[in-house]
Amino acid sequence: MYAMVLERPGEQLKMAERPDPLPGDGEVRVRVAACGVCRTDLHVVDGELPDPKLPIVPGHEIVGRIDAIGGGVTGLAVGMRVGIPWLGKTCGQCRYCREGRENLCDRPLFTGYTRDGGYANYTVADARYVFRLPDSGDDVASAPLLCAGLIGWRSLRLAGDGKRIGLYGFGAAAHIIAQVARWQGREVYAFTRAGDVAAQAFAQKLGARWAGGSEEKPPEELDCAIIYAPVGALVPAALRAVRKGGRVVCAGIHMSDIPSFPYSILWQERELRSVANLTRQDGEEFFAIVPRAGIVTQTVRYPLARANDALSDLRSGRLQGAAVLVP
Ligand SMILES: [Zn+2]
Ligand SMILES: [Zn+2]
Q1: Which residues does 298 contact at the CB level (< 8 Å), separation at least 6?
Q2: Where are the alpha helices (H) located in the chain, listed in sequence order?
Q3: Distance 321 CA to ligand 2 centre (A)
Q4: 292 class by beta-carbon count within 10 Å (0-12 exposed, 13-18 middle, 19+ buried)
Q5: Which of 36, 137, 235, 240 has the fewest CB neighbours in a 10 Å radius?
Q6: What are the b/e assignments for 61-81, b being 16+ CB within 10 Å?
Q7: Phi, psi angle pair for 267, to nearest 5°
Q8: R_g (Cα) of the chain, nearest Å
Q9: DSSP letters of 68-90?
Q10: Rounded distance between C-alpha atoms, residue 87 and residue 71, angstroms
């Protein structure tokens, strides 16, 4: 197999050839057809997340087909089309797992962070955390659903059912969640970097009622807001945009420091919370919604060997939609 490997944070990924991985008991080997590039990959590569496995093959938006199966795997077979998400394994025993909050597991493994991921032509996954996908379907178009879609869905659910929803940072996750929110009958208010008229036009094309810069005041008070951009200064901006009793959800795994802000913008029962990871239940719910909501992803395809270019395009904000690597 070959893979794009990160040896040390802060370095470029390097193409490496490795022996084909063998699935152990309870695992499947997947021939990768496409792997999305998520902002979390940038945080891994830039060393903003603690204790990655090193060297690591990044990538946790994997679509492919099972081509080998380890012992004791049930419900999956060679040839099936599957998706491999960020949640790679949980312990099943800690209080969070027992309470049905496996996203908060004390001893988890995360794909492309603490176990090898999908910037490769083959990968191995724990069979219990793999999602079965419809046999037909566009592999590249499906890849961003595995994290931008899934964690986007969890953040939308935790934002509550307010009608007027603000999305801060209109990238891979927001472009999917805007479509879900519209399908649910909500009004979407899209916030982009100041002056990013291309992203604002993109949001409006996807049905946003209003699009503007993140420091702008929306034309209506919002019921809730989700922050996808890793920018702490958006927290007070979003709190100022939501009504009394409104909720602000921080959906990213990493964010720059939040500047201090006056208590008055949190007062009146406004809520601020984060969203971490996903549960398998989130996946079951979300993949049932995808066809009903008619979600169409916008992707930019890169050959696997150009993973570093995909990461730098994401870092600079040049992308519209989601980058996807094809081995
Ligand atoms: Zn656990
Ligand atoms: Zn991700």
Answers
A1: 175, 202, 320, 321, 322
A2: 39-45, 95-98, 139-142, 148-158, 172-183, 197-205, 234-241, 280-293, 307-316
A3: 14
A4: exposed
A5: 137
A6: bbbbbbebbbeebeeeeeebb
A7: -50, 165
A8: 19
A9: EE-TT--S--TT-EEEE-SEEE-
A10: 21
Question: Which neighbouring-strand residues pair with 324?
Answer: 36, 301
CB-based contact 141:300 (threshold 8 Å): no
Separation of 292 CA from ligand 2 center, angstroms?
23
What is the CA(268)–ligand 2 centre distance, in A? 33
* Cα 324 to chain centroid, rounded: 13
Grouping H, G, I as helix, E, B as strand and the rest as coil, residue 262 is coil
CA of 263 to the centre of ligand 2 (A): 32
Identify the helix (H) or strand (E) that includes residue 35. Answer: strand 27-37
Q: What is the pLDDT of residues 186-221, one digit of tens each?
A: 999 999 999 999 999 999 999 999 999 999 999 999
In terms of residues, how long is the chain?
A: 327
